[in-house]
Amino acid sequence: MRSNQLNHSILKLAIPNIISNITVPLLGLVDMMLMGHLDSVSYIGAIGLGGTIFSVMYSIFSFMRAGTTGFTAQAYGGNNHQEISYGFYRSMGIALIATVLVLSLQRPIEWIAMQLLNGSDEVLRFTSEYFRVRIWAAPAVLSLYTFNGWYIGMQNTTIPMVIAILINAVNIGLSVLFVNVFDMGVAGVALGTVIAQYIGLLTAIIFMLAKYRQYLTPIEKKILLQADKLKRFFKVNTDFMIRSILLVLTIAFFTNQSAKLGDDILAVNMILMQFFYIFSYFTDGFAYAGEALVGRFTGAHDHENLKKTIKYLLLWGLGLSIPFTLLYWAFPETFIHLISDQPGIAEQARPYYIYMILIPVITFAAFLWDGIYIGATAAKEIRNTMIIASLIVFLPAWYFLMPIYGNHGLWIAFLLFMVARGVSMTVMAPRIWKS
After folding, report:
1. Is the dihedral of CA 391, 393, 396, 398 positive or negative?
2. What CA–CA distance (Å, rounded) separates 221 from 250?
3. Of 371, 94, 10, 72, the residue nearest 212 (C-alpha)
4. CA torsion sign, 105 to 164 to 242 to 374?
5. pTM for this structure?
């Protein structure tokens, strides 16, 4: 492919992902705004801690999206119709097992989470209320991991875009209705999420039946349970699972340590983290494009286009980071006031604006390498880089810096974690291309 063709392919895949991803932080912002305009900062903390519980829980199973994308894209590149179908079946089987597991263990999960989280009694009470409603979205969320991963692997990011926009638009509308009209508080936000996720799942099924019915072949047990396929499927996905758990545990640990510093600092950090999520979802648009194209060229053994894809992805990421850095530098208080009008929040956040400004240039490489590694199903390598970043860099940095510098130390440790991810994946990349 010529350079302009390859860049066109990247943008064709990335732009729908960016559009759909924008709706995710928009939903987070709306939730924060709804809670931020109530009569207590405890509502903001509860949404932050409640979201953390589900992020950690779903991280155990989020490998289904990444693994499904990688395997499907490689089967697509190799024109292997059988593996396109059976990759979907294997992943959906895991989603069904995960659903049963999560729903049957919801009470123990809640109890453990309440023991581990730090927050005031009021924050934890609201967090528990949020959890008990939102847990019922689990079947839809876990099934959508498989659907979205499969669609991206099929080089189709438009369908996940439509599903994401629909989910988040419905979620926002219902959350506003339940909170502002029916005065349901955190339970209203959670209920909006539950209903929206099931609408999204129904939409995913309709698209599958309308556009990809030819891949819904009768299931043959012998092929589904083929030993070598299952071994590779579980090996790759186990490593992806470890990587995802470490990533979300690091963010959860950051949230938990924020809570130890008091409800006000917890609220400040949760608001500032929205800017991390906003940039990550823009960059993830290109990362998902990387998953699809790298998987496709890996499956087709097209090494020339594989290397060009990686080069252009990193250049797009660098170009994207610059305007975000400038926006975060120029209008920090505007964004803060948009989220919350609680007295003193902007004043308390001001000393930490520098970390918000640094996020784009520090994090873009890590986000893009994630997509590249997933497309190549380089699961062992992505697992090892996450171990380095979380256990060898982040935890020691937190241990030494937070007791001295407080919240500044916590933020520095988190940014060092992101730097370590980008650097370690850059260093380890040549090993992947050799294999």
Report:
1. negative
2. 39
3. 72
4. positive
5. 0.83
Output the CA–CA distances (angstroms, integers) from residue 229 to 28, 43, 83, 172, in the order listed: 38, 47, 9, 41
Q: How far apart are CA 291 and CA 344, in angstroms?
A: 43
The dihedral built from the CA positions of residue 110, 111, 117 and 119, taken in this order, carries a sign that is: positive
8 Å CB contact between 161 and 20: yes
Question: And the tokens for 396?
Answer: 């020691």
Q: Which residues are CB-contacts of 210 (< 8 A; sequence separation ≥ 6)?
A: none
Residue 422 in tokens: 């980008």
C-beta neighbour count of 399 within 10 angstroms: 11
* Number of Cβ atoms within 10 Å of the Cβ of 225: 11
Q: Check: CB of residue 382 under 8 Å from CB of residue 398.
A: no
Cα separation, 378 vs 429, in Å, equals 10
Phi, psi angle pair for 227, to nearest 5°? -60, -50
Evaluate whether 55 touches 248 at the Cβ level (below 8 Å).
Answer: yes
pLDDT tens for the 435 residues of the chain, in order: 778 889 999 999 999 988 887 776 566 667 767 766 665 667 777 777 887 788 778 877 878 888 899 999 999 999 999 999 999 999 999 899 999 999 999 999 999 888 877 677 778 888 898 899 999 999 999 999 999 999 999 999 999 999 998 998 898 899 889 988 888 888 888 899 899 999 999 999 999 999 999 999 999 988 888 888 888 888 988 999 899 889 988 988 998 899 889 888 888 898 888 888 889 888 999 999 999 999 999 999 888 899 999 999 999 999 999 999 999 999 887 777 777 666 677 788 889 999 999 999 999 999 999 999 999 999 999 999 999 999 999 999 999 999 999 999 999 999 999 999 999 999 998 877 666
Alpha-carbon gap, residue 212 to 215, rounded angstroms: 6
What gap in Å lies between CA 213 and CA 216, rounded to an integer? Answer: 5
Q: Within 13 Å and on the Cβ side, how many CA atoms surround 10? A: 28
Query: Measured between alpha carbons, how far apart are the two ends of the chain, in Å?
Result: 23
